[in-house]
From TrEMBL:
Pathway(s) served: Metabolic intermediate biosynthesis; chorismate biosynthesis; chorismate from D-erythrose 4-phosphate and phosphoenolpyruvate: step 2/7
Protein name as annotated: 3-dehydroquinate synthase
Natural source organism: Hondaea fermentalgiana
Pfam families: DHQ_synthase (PF01761), DHQS_C (PF24621)
InterPro entries per the UniProt record, alphabetical: Dehydroquinate_synthase, DHQ_synth_AroB, DHQS/DOIS_N, DHQS_C
Bias-annotated ranges (Polar residues): 422-437
GO molecular function: 3-dehydroquinate synthase activity; metal ion binding; nucleotide binding
Stretches for region Disordered: 374-450
Domain 3-dehydroquinate synthase N-terminal intervals: 69-180
Compositional bias annotation for Low complexity: 400-421
Length: 450
């Protein structure tokens, strides 16, 4: 049975709980940690119509006086303009340094709202109410906030810890299938880097394959959104991330392990264009590519990236991308936040549960970028594996289309991906049927599931 208690992020006087409660209980949860009064709910135009009123009613019933701000949703809106607009709106509402900002939405919303809270009046208290799987297992925990710039992803931001993360797994009921799969990319990342305290010496952490093996055994239930499997998945990811953040709040060492898949993934996102590829999909591809690089450098057995790719296929996630120019990816990697002069700190899996950090030049990433087209076989293999495992698309949010966290409907782009069985070929952003890419950045491009 999955535990129901809070997970604590231990950071001294900045410690906070991750509570697992229904979204309608946010008012009481918040009141248990902060004296009720004025607060500001920040959400987006996709989540707002679904949960905005529920959240405000809950807050009022617990003695809060909520103001309400709705942002445009989507990675393409994670900009300095959106951030400045939000700061100005907070000031117009005459917030003071004790006015909590309550971020309700996916990772884009929690990142922007957290950054605005960190910088408005030199710091406002804020709470996260993540409503997407990616935000619940990763983005809402750890205090990283920020926005994208024309130079790269999350290059303007701050470390600013929330005083509460309220994880409402019931909010995932309205999450679209593409956005649900997106979150599973971060789930697999956490499983690859899982460690556990050494029973004989709790001050030491040792590699663990327990969560990864559990995911392998329960992939079909996770894809089907089985509630018990989903609750365990979300909670275990929060436990893993909380343990790492508690040891290294500001990414001076061990926390950099949480960037597994992100060096390659962020470069791919930058070249494709923000909003053209879901973040979790890019992380999935990046995790396989970076593990493949570890194999080429002689520190990892070749079976490891194949095993990771196999799990990703079971969860209906992409493992490769064709058509991008290696030179463009190398150039994009120069803007990586982890770069120190001529080197980038890259995650290097040695085995499941044993991920290490190594400094390399962007040029040394070329084999990882090149492996994107070949590292896991063909889309046909993915289809066969999906069919044999009955891994259909999740059904919890299928009727809601783009509800909760998916980008708002927009004219179909040319981007398409090859999908597993029981899925249509879809546009990245809208889920609508589409055709192969014509000319994205770097040439014709398609995502490979397999």
């Amino acid at each position: 049975m999955t535990s129901t208690g809070a997970v604590q992020v231990d950071l001294g006087d900045r410690s906070y709980p991750i509570e697992f409660r229904p979204i309608k209980e946010i008012g009481a949860t918040l009141a248990g940690l902060h004296k009720p009064g004025k607060c500001v709910v920040v959400t987006n135009d996709v989540v707002g119509p679904l949960y905005g009123q529920i959240v405000q009613d809950s807050l009022r019933s617990a003695g809060w006086a909520p103001e309400y701000i709705e942002l445009e949703d989507g990675e393409a809106k994670k900009t300095t303009d959106t951030y400045i607009g939000l700061v100005n709106r907070l000031l117009e509402l005459q917030v003071d340094r004790k006015t909590p900002v309550v971020a309700v939405g996916g990772g884009v919303t929690t990142d922007i709202a957290g950054f605005a809270a960190a910088t408005t009046m030199r710091g406002l208290p804020f709470a996260n109410v993540p409503t997407t799987l990616l935000a619940q297992v990763d983005a809402s925990v750890g205090g990283k906030t920020g926005v994208n710039t024309s130079h790269g992803k999350n290059l303007l931001g701050a470390f600013w810890q929330p005083f509460l993360v309220h994880v409402a797994v019931d909010a995932l009921d309205t999450l679209s299938d593409p956005e649900y799969r997106c979150g599973l990319g971060e789930v697999v990342k956490h499983a690859v880097l899982e460690e556990k305290q050494d029973p004989s010496d709790p001050s030491k952490w040792v590699p663990s394959t327990e969560f990864f093996e559990w995911l392998e055994a329960n992939a079909e239930a996770i894809v089907a959104r089985d509630q018990e499997a989903l609750k365990h998945t979300v909670r275990r990811c929060c436990e893993i991330k909380a343990a790492v953040v508690s040891q290294d709040e500001r990414e001076s060492g061990k926390r950099a392990l949480l960037n597994l898949g992100h060096t390659v993934g962020h470069a791919v996102e930058a070249v494709v264009g923000y909003g053209g590829l879901r973040h979790g999909e890019a992380v999935a591809m990046g995790t396989v590519a970076e593990t493949h690089l570890a194999v080429l450098r002689g520190c990892c057995d070749a079976s490891v990236p194949e095993r990771i790719a196999s799990l990703l296929r079971k969860l209906q996630l992409p493992t490769g991308l064709e058509g991008l120019k290696t030179d463009d990816l190398v150039k994009a990697s120069f803007m990586d936040k982890k770069r120190e002069q001529a080197h980038i700190t890259v995650t290097m899996p040695h085995s499941i549960g044993d991920v290490r950090l190594v400094k390399i030049t962007p040029e040394e990433l070329i084999p990882a970028f090149e492996s994107l087209t070949t590292n896991a076989g063909s889309a046909d293999a993915a289809r066969e594996e999906d069919a044999s495992s009955k891994g259909g698309a999740g059904n919890g949010g299928a009727s809601n289309g783009e509800a909760n966290g998916a980008a708002p409907p927009s004219p179909p782009s040319a981007n398409s991906f090859a999908s597993g069985a029981h899925q249509n070929s879809e546009n990245f952003m809208t889920g609508r049927p589409t055709t192969r890419v014509h000319q994205p950045p770097g040439g014709a491009s398609s995502i490979i599931f397999g």
